[in-house]
Amino acid sequence: MSYKLHDEVEGTCLECGSTIHGRRDKRFCSLSCKNKFNNRTQMAKRQMRAKVMAALTGNYAILEALLIEKKTGASLEDLSELGFDPAYVTSHRRGRFSHDEYACFDIWYYRTDTRIFNVRRKLP
Ligand SMILES: [Zn+2]
Fold this sequence. Notes:
- By secondary structure, the protein is of the alpha+beta class.
- It has one domain (about 10-120).
- It has helices spanning about 30-70, 75-80; strands spanning about 10, 20-25, 75, 90-95, 100-105, 105-110, 115-120.
- The strands form 2 sheets. Strands 3-7-6-5-4 form a 5-stranded antiparallel beta sheet.
- The longest helix is centred in the middle third of the chain and has 38 residues, at about 30-70.
- The termini are far apart.
């Protein structure tokens, strides 16, 4: 006669898919699978953060170039050709009586559907 302890169940290893016997909360068949899984998920998170930082760094350089050229606005179409991606911001304030305000670190601007304006440096 075989029996299982109440809290022992069969599960599936999150890394290799093999059957696991043991505690209900056990997620991996081995330390090797646990390490592989964690290394892969940490790598994916690092790559995602690096992608976001690269986009913000690119946007910042474009906004800074506008300020150096003494320009306070530009069309999103022109900025897009330079590689500006309006989806990446570090702050956003919904405009109650005016346009929404966005920031890329210390550079703030207002944005409409077609352009940005009032580009300026401001501490948050
Ligand atoms: Zn495994």
